[in-house]
Design a protein that fits this description.
Pfam families: DUF4293. This protein is of the alpha+beta class and 161 residues long. The chain is built from four helices and five strands, in the order αββββααβα. It has a five-stranded antiparallel sheet with strand order 4-3-2-1-5, with helices on one face. Strand 1 and strand 2 form a beta hairpin. Helix 1 packs antiparallel against helix 2, helix 1 runs antiparallel to helix 4 and helix 2 runs antiparallel to helix 3. It is elongated and about 75 Å long.
Length: 161
């Protein structure tokens, strides 16, 4: 049923992936020139001190946004598969793989692609959006745990009949 705790976890997963689309993931500032590079779910933008109002897109990072949308769509579809718990568990496993790919892609763009654009002594700062795939993995694991618990409960009741 939709009012189960796993549905709440999956809904929070959807909300965290949607929030990731709008939050910055990583930023790095060059101390000498003042240039700042910001990674979002869609691109890497470079901001100079003179044009701080609008950034110029330097590289495309659309893979991050597409993976976040895929994870949100899978979780939303998984909520409404409450009649077929085995299908829900399979979708949960698929979503785990998508979220792991999202986390790896975000790290790749932050550590390698974005780090090359600005010469600075430090590696940059991970922003709030970077940690949302980790939250998504936790929420997905909790939802899968409660889905499995429901399936085990149904099987134990079937055994008693």
């Amino acid at each position: 049923m939709i009012q189960r705790i796993q549905s709440v976890f999956l809904l929070l997963l959807v909300l965290s992936m949607v929030a990731m689309l709008f939050l910055p993931l990583w930023s790095k500032t060059d101390a000498t020139t003042g240039e700042e590079v910001v990674l979002t779910a869609w691109n890497i933008k470079s901001y100079m001190p003179a044009d701080a109002a609008e950034g110029t897109p330097v590289k495309n990072a659309i893979a991050i946004g597409m993976l976040a949308i895929a994870a949100a769509a899978i979780a939303l579809y998984e909520i409404f598969q409450f009649r077929n718990r085995l299908n829900q568990m399979k979708l949960g496993l698929l979503n785990t793989l998508v979220l792991a790919a999202l986390l790896g892609t975000s790290f790749y763009y932050a550590a390698y692609v974005g780090a090359e654009l600005v010469e600075a002594d430090h590696n940059g700062a991970y922003e709030a959006g970077f940690y949302l795939p980790m939250l998504g993995l936790l929420l997905n694991a909790l939802a899968n745990r409660f889905i499995k618990r429901d399936e085990d409960l149904v099987r134990s009741v079937d055994r008693l009949r």
